[in-house]
Amino acid sequence: MKKFLLMISAAACLTASAETVANVDYEDGIFLLNEGWYGHVHGYMYFRASDGTMVYRAPEVENGNGTQLGVTAQFGTVYGGKVYVCSKQNAYSSEGYGARISVLNAATLKIEKELKTLPGGVDPRAIMLTDDAAYVSTSGGVLVYDKDLTECKATIGDSEYSTMVYAGGKVFVCEFRGNLAIIDPATNAIESTIEGTFGGLVMSHDGNIWASVVDANKLLKVNPYTLASEEVAVEAGVAINKYSWCTDGFSASTLENKLYWKSVDGWENQGIYCYDIDNDELTKIIDMTGDSYTFYDGGVGVHPASGNICSMMNQTSWGKNSAYREWNKAGELLTDEELPTSIDVNGETFTTEYPFPAQVFFSDKYAPEFDVTALGSVAPGTTAKYRLTDIVSDADNQDAAIVVTAETTGSIKANIAEGYLYVEGTSEGEGSLTLVANSNGRKASATIQYNATSLSDIAAASLEVTASAQGISVCTPVAGEVSVIDAQGRLVATATVEAGITTCVADQVAAGVYVVRQGANSAKVIVK
């Protein structure tokens, strides 16, 4: 069936049509979540594909009428191939559809699970997932579910909580306009608290946690491993919402060490600031003073792959219209698209008048990738140290947020601590290191083979490697076996070389980047 694409230049009372979309890729685009119009309209969600096509009310389009999100939909996230949406209420009293937590298939947007009520009758604020559990911040504590949201295993605290971040093996969660609590997932208990009045919570590109401070021109910076914290003064504060179910317009770039936030202008926020962490510089990169549209709640976010600032906006003075706008990192407007005030889905008309944008969040297109060319052999009794962000990355997630585990066999041991990989040589002989990365629920692995049978003989030897049409030339003072490892850590070839220069593996490797290893020594080579 044909996709409907509407782009107009002036606000008007327009009706758009929405049909089942045959070829849209819901794993490559932007979700625009709106809380709806309380008392009139349930929460709803648009999807803007990477080619600019807009799918209006995408959950209704893909699931059929009669299936909607909950009332006052406020928070959305993507994890492990699923889209999670939290709503303040499941439905109006006379309706049988809607949920407090809706779980949709990320590829199809088919609803797979709905939680209409939560233990204790609390209302959800946000949801955060790990490979072991789902954490739901609520109006009365943090609920800990199994990862499938089948059973609630624990309730932590009894305060009203909002934003959450998982870092350093801990769960960071803000009390609403209150303290920052740090939860130990092993015990499901609060292990420590940083006192203050905090709003939004994000992880910056360098892996630190940042909290916005209520009614103050400052931020709180927290090391997720040591929990050491410091206040950082800024010239303009972050707009923090008055209600716990509303997300804040506070975001972090995945490309640069920069934070972005919505200016403090009362209800009608018309500016976006960018804080360059490394250079301690604050710039107002978007100033819409006098414009007919405004940023509302968390309806603004930074695209993880492009760095563009994306927003679903509502009309000033509580107007009935809405728009989608997108700017580049310099604050230059790229897209200005008015959105319809009503939408026909399968013969039923849904109003979108008086919109209240809740959140802009993004699909998860890319899996993590390893580059283990920097990893070399280690001699017995020595330990090599590598920064994890140097060997694993994700094109649409914070590299520092990737959770890495390690398993070894044979002559080496490995340990991961505080963002570093430590590889210890325990004996001579063969061994292997397997790394598994979990980035936002998507996984990748790499295995590095070690052959240290003659480590004691060549520990101090030099190794030089070049590539030509005849193969890989290895220059070494010691005869022995060399291994050729690709960028994903896979062993692709081995060869026996003589002392001096040996040309080998002419037909065994394709074009690419490789590491050649001989005992404790390694050298990088590019085959063209």
What can you tell me about this protein's structure?
A seven-stranded antiparallel beta sheet has the order 13-14-15-16-17-18-19, with no helix packed on it. Strands 24, 25, 26, 27 and 28 form a five-stranded antiparallel beta sheet that branches. The protein has two domains: 25-362, Methylamine Dehydrogenase, Chain H; 369-527, no CATH class. 2% of the residues lie in helices and 51% in strands. The protein is an all-beta fold. It has two helices and 46 strands.
Distance from N terminus to C terminus (CA atoms, Å) equals 45 Å
Name given to the CATH homologous superfamily of the largest domain: YVTN repeat-like/Quinoprotein amine dehydrogenase
Cα-based radius of gyration, to the nearest Å: 26 Å
Report the strand count: 46
Number of helices: 2
Could you say which overall geometry the principal axes of the C-alpha atoms support? Answer: elongated
Strand order of the largest sheet: 13-14-15-16-17-18-19
User: How much helical structure, as a percent, in the residues?
Assistant: under 10%
CATH architecture of the largest domain: 7 Propeller
